[in-house]
């Protein structure tokens, strides 16, 4: 069983790392089997949080209103991760979001990791679901705030330790870290035409600019334009 690692989880505005945004990162740094340091932070998205996401996570637009932007939070999280192995439940989902955000800001994020979902799919073929919630219920792991990043990360760390206790000796290969590989399409920067139109809209509507034009991607610019035209605030 690994004694030192980072367990992490994120909450997002949707399922696509190219189209949607991270709104919360939660992580714990484990050293010699004990939590040494925590990372818990909201990220202010460029667009409003959809109602269905608030329904799932409990995260409202008011909660992220005064949060830092991804340009500030992502580099801090990369520093927090150091050279550690990452552990997550369906880890490639979370990793892909962080990686594409990191790369869009000019950083690299190449990591090895362990996926507790992948382990559970092998050792718990009998269970009807291998979701984090179902596995926590199976092992009686208390998760006091499911679908909030830090608490899901903490539950994942407990799940990893529990499954390693029962199954690592029988299935050691399942618990070996491997390179995290995800095919992420990097969105190109916003075009001059998009930026000109976007800035005109902001000025006409009397809105406050809340994004960094130097890091805005073509997809993000398109969604911002659509949101303004449909009556949403930037």
UniProtKB/TrEMBL annotation:
It comes from the Bacteria. It holds the Pfam family RNase_T. Residues 4-169 form the Exonuclease domain. SUPFAM superfamilies: Ribonuclease H-like. InterPro entries: DnaQ, Ribonucl_H, RNaseH-like_sf, RNaseH_sf. NCBIfam families: dnaq. This is Exonuclease domain-containing protein. It comes from Blautia hominis.
